[in-house]
Amino acid sequence: MKILGLSCGTKNGNNDTMCRVALEAARDAGAEIEFIHVFDWDIKFCSGCVACSRGLVMGKGMICTQKDDYAALYQKMVDADGVLIVDPIYESGGSGLFHVLCDRMGPGHDTGMLMMLDGKLKEQGKEGLNPRIFMQKAISFVGIGGSDWACRVETDHAMLAMSPGWKVVDNDFFSWSKDVIMQEDKVARMQEIGRNLVEAAQYIIDNHVMIPGSENLDLWKGKKGGCPHCHSNNFYIFPGTNHAVCELCGLEGHLEIGEEGVTLVNDPSLGENGTIEHCHDLLSGKAAHGKDIFENEGRLMNLFKDPEFKARKQHYTDVVAPTPAPSKQ
Ligand SMILES: Cc1cc2nc3c(=O)[nH]c(=O)nc-3n(C[C@H](O)[C@H](O)[C@H](O)COP(=O)(O)O)c2cc1C
To answer: 40 and 186: one domain?
Structure first.
């Protein structure tokens, strides 16, 4: 079993160290370990070109126009049985580097889209994708903060697992942590997170859990959250109502106060988004979302030939040109 730890912090800073704390515990529990300091790798921004989703839908392959180390990093994650991401908390959420990882994981590595590509390749008589891509994976996240601004970080982090549909085991954050390796409770919790990841990864290996068919599997070891589906505690509340959407899995319903605090009670009368089947991490939810995107993309493709669309575009292009970047002049 292999556990891969990624740190998005500064070189040999707190995030690197805490990642290594968990990895040491994972190694002591019998896992082979690997550590990557993500800043050492060349990971470029997603350019927004959507070549990835077009390539998948049209059966052309896994395409990304950015030539860097992301494909190799993704392969490292695919090859691991469990992944731990330790990330500094910036502005109460995940770091910029972490958000770049999320964008790069995005549509191009969405399991639903990859299954579509796999089917299309096989229809063309070609070899399908590496079956390892469709193996389930245990993933945990830890945010490390220098203060107590942290209320969005768990949701930011778990978002990375939505596209591939990997199972989140622990999702935690440590505030006031500039001296974190001297704080015994946080070191002990990090060791526990390492051991939990090994246990969850072992379950996946022993039961040969593939992503299709494992939608209802819950490997969660964290605190009980307000969302009944994904354990998230962040909701968008429609102004003046208790009508809310889970910011992580997209489940829609009403917030209610009960003995266990505030929870979201999903409500199918609000439409498909009120059903568990529509949640972002499930293949059923991905299929519905994919269909909607496909229809929207098709409408846009047709508009490119439309004279009125072209005239409107030209009008606004002529309003003002972008200022060139000083560094590129
Ligand atoms: C741009 C920036 C924004 C930050 N915002 C927060 C924040 O909102 N909440 C918080 O607890 N710490 C915040 N911090 C502190 C970092 O989380 C802290 O410096 C980091 O965890 C140190 O990790 P490292 O030693 O691995 O680099 C911020 C730091 C930077 C550089």
So the answer is: yes
258 with 176, same domain: the answer is no
Number of residues assigned to the chain? 329
**Cα(88) to centroid of ligand 1, in Å?**
5
Sheet containing 138-144: give its strands across. Answer: 32-37, 2-7, 82-88, 138-144, 167-174
63 and 108: one domain?
Answer: yes
pLDDT by residue (tens digit) across 265-321?
A: 999 999 999 999 999 999 999 999 888 888 888 899 899 999 999 999 999 999 999
Helix H, strand E, coil C: the string for 41-82 is: CCCCCCCCCCHHHHHHHCCCCCCCCCCCCHHHHHHHHHHCCE
Range of the domain at 84: 2-206
| Per-residue buried b or exposed e for 200-211, using 16+ beta carbons within 10 Å of the residue's own CB | bbbbbeeeebeb
If one counts every other C-beta atom within 10 angstroms of the C-beta of residue 172, the result is 20
Residue 212 lies in a domain: no
Number of the ligand 1 atom closest to the C-alpha atom of 18:
26
> Looking at the whole model, is its pTM more than 0.90?
yes
The answer to whether the CB of 95 is under 6 A from ligand 1 is no
Whether 229 is covered by a domain: the verdict is: no
Does a structural domain hold residue 225?
Answer: no
Q: How many structural domains does the chain have?
A: 2
What band does 77 get if pLDDT is binned at 50, 70 and 90?
very high
Cα-to-centroid distance, 153 and ligand 1 (Å): 12
161 and 242 housed in the same domain: no
Q: How many angstroms separate the alpha carbon of residue 89 from the centre of ligand 1?
A: 5
Find the mean pLDDT for residues 171-185: 97
| Overall average pLDDT of the 174-202 stretch | 98
CATH of the domain at 179: 3.40.50.360
Judge whether residue 234 has pLDDT over 90.
yes
Is the CB–ligand 1 distance for residue 147 below 6 Å?
A: yes
Nearest CA to ligand 1 atom 3: 90
Q: Kindly state whether residue 216 falls inside one of the protein's structural domains.
A: no
**CA angle (146, 153, 99) in 5-degree steps:** 105
